[in-house]
Structure to design on (349 residues):
């Protein structure tokens, strides 16, 4: 099928119906598709017009589902804030799913760009010509990520056969435990930081441990959230150099996922350049200024891997990108992260 996005085509993918394939090497960080809504479906179902329903019915449906609801589950990313509804996109809605896992993971991510009113699809890894382009349907949702097979069966009506889901049950359960722990940590970390009860270095150590697990488990979409927490911590204690390093990571990972123009990335540019412009700046310096530190080298290596594309002329990737850890780095990261398996253990001041 001829598309208006020259880097990709829609093809049949065995076992998945149709899908999207790369027509050329696509370096990480590239904007692959910026697509206008075909139809918007408001959350209030009674506002959906008969024409919109007709358009929806022209798309295939998960076999077990209600003809309308099934198609919602099947195709429609949220657009705008969660109460604004879903969007139907002719091409982006053809992108299949891969679960984040230590073995595999999606190579692209989509995000809604409010100013242009378009859904953007960015390459989050280098994508090789002919490779299938996939996104994760489940990130940022702890319940789903702890048991992706059940979630996808229930909500999307398919049995996922990505490499992560084909692992033995014990390995999947091990991942589920670690994922649960990092979501619990994510829920608590701001509270812990703001409680002022814990030594900032100890909190930073725990953020790093969780980040290493996030990297190992392939949950790269969470990196910028964790690194922004680390930034805030450093900013609260007035450590500008460390705060800048953490926020540069937030910015660069945000750029990979949402592009340079996204509002969050633009804010990150400012805060990385001058942490004192952030509202948290110096908030806890009455407790004494603290010298903290930026991200450890394993995290940096993960977030800024060299390009894997032979066709990339520049030795530098288009934007710094996440990649898999080497064997040696993984071993070190595992050793560092081991303690966190139980629960983040914060030392009190
Ligand atoms: C957003 S649509 C993707 C396009 C769809 N494959 C098509 O032919 O139109 C989502 C549907 O694609 C199929 N799908 C996506 N990822 C899959 C995967 N990893 N394994 C099997 N089926 C998948 C499922 O039927 C799912 O409900």
């Amino acid at each position: 099928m001829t598309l208006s996005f020259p880097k990709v085509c829609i093809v049949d993918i065995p076992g998945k119906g149709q899908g999207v394939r790369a027509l050329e090497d696509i370096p990480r960080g590239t904007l692959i598709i910026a697509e206008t809504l075909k139809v918007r479906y408001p959350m209030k179902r009674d506002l959906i017009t008969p024409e919109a329903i007709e358009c929806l019915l022209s798309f295939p449906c998960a076999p077990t589902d209600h003809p309308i609801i099934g198609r919602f589950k099947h195709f429609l990313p949220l657009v705008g804030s969660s109460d604004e509804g879903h969007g139907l996109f002719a091409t982006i809605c053809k992108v299949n799913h891969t679960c984040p896992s230590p073995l595999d993971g999606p190579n692209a991510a989509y995000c809604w760009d409010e100013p242009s009113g378009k859904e953007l699809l960015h390459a989050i890894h280098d994508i090789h010509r002919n490779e299938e382009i996939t996104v994760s349907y489940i990130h940022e949702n702890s319940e789903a990520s702890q048991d992706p097979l059940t979630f996808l069966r229930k909500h999307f009506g398919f049995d996922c056969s990505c490499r992560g889901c084909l692992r033995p049950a014990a390995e999947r359960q091990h991942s589920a435990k670690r994922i649960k722990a990092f979501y619990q940590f994510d829920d608590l970390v701001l509270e812990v930081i703001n409680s002022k009860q814990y030594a900032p270095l100890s909190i930073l150590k725990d953020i790093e441990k969780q980040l290493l697990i996030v990297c190992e488990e392939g949950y790269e979409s969470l990196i910028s959230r964790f690194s922004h927490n680390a930034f805030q911590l450093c900013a609260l204690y007035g450590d500008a150099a460390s705060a800048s390093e953490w926020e540069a990571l937030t910015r660069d990972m945000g750029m990979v996922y949402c592009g340079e123009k996204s509002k969050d990335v633009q804010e990150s540019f400012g805060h990385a350049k001058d942490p004192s412009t952030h509202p948290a700046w110096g908030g806890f310096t009455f407790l004494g200024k603290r010298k903290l530190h930026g991200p450890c080298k394993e995290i940096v290596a993960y977030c800024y891997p060299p390009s894997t594309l032979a066709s990339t002329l520049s030795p530098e990737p288009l934007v710094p990108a996440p990649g898999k850890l080497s064997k040696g780095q993984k071993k070190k990261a595992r050793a560092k992260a081991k303690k966190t398996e139980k629960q983040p253990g914060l030392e009190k001041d």
Remarks:
- The CA atoms of residues 159 and 236 lie 46 Å apart.
- Residues 15-19, 60, 62, 74-75, 93-94, 96-97, 156-158, 160-162 surround S-adenosylmethionine (CB under 6 Å).
- The radius of gyration is 21 Å.
- The beta strands are 8-13, 17-22, 31-36, 39-41, 86-88, 96-97, 108-113, 118-123, 132-135.
